[in-house]
Design a protein that fits this description.
- Residues 31-165 form the DUF4142 domain.
- By secondary structure, the chain is an all-alpha fold.
- Helix 1 (6-26) packs parallel to helix 5.
- The chain contains 6 helices and no strands.
- The chain has helices at residues 6-26, 31-55, 59-86, 93-103, 110-138, 142-170.
- It is globular.
- The protein has one domain (31-177): Ferritin.
């Protein structure tokens, strides 16, 4: 039996991450559960993007990762403020790290990392958009509804940028994103 190539291993890993994320997002029935799920997803995005900055040599991947870190850091800060104001208990650091580890991109190197990172960003942003749309439409909390509506455009922008990155790096192009 042959060992799957790196992209196939990554696709299998994405399927596991997707299943874990969707199982969690489907359970985000209460405002506190949405806070936990959105926070974990945001932290995973930040950590994956930090890894991308360290591993990539591509200017476009690096620029995108910096933007993702900034936007998800802002979103997590706002989410934490809402949770504290509402008196919702946040997940313990240990619980949060456990969720985040399940969402982390498997370590790859070089061009295969760039392809894997871009593909991961498409999948995770599609999932986050679905979670945030659900919260924006059905939230029991006015603050979380406003939060989801505020950050949906940023998530949608990240998704479009990630799709461009995925297309460029899948082809092996040295294209850079135009902002």
């Amino acid at each position: 039996m042959t060992t799957p190539c790196a992209p196939k291993r990554f696709v299998a890993g994405c399927a596991v991450v997707y299943a874990v994320f969707m199982a969690g997002s489907a359970a985000a029935a209460s405002p506190a559960e949405f806070v936990d799920e959105a926070s974990a997803a945001g932290i995973a995005e930040i950590e994956n993007s930090r890894m991308a900055i360290q591993k990539t040599t591509s200017v476009d991947i690096n620029s995108y990762a910096v933007e993702v870190i900034r936007d998800h850091t802002d979103a997590n800060r706002d989410l934490k403020e809402i949770a504290h104001k509402q008196g919702w208990a946040l997940a313990t650091e240990e619980d949060m790290l456990s969720k985040v580890k399940n969402m982390m991109l498997q370590v790859q190197e070089g061009a295969s990392f760039d392809v894997a990172y871009a593909a991961n960003q498409v999948t995770t942003h599609e999932d986050a958009i679905a979670l945030f749309k659900q919260e924006a439409q059905q939230s029991k909390s006015a603050e979380l509804k406003a939060f989801a509506q505020k950050y949906l455009p940023k998530l949608e922008m990240h998704l479009e940028m990630a799709k461009k990155l995925a297309a460029a790096h899948q082809k092996g192009d040295a294209a850079t994103l135009q902002k």
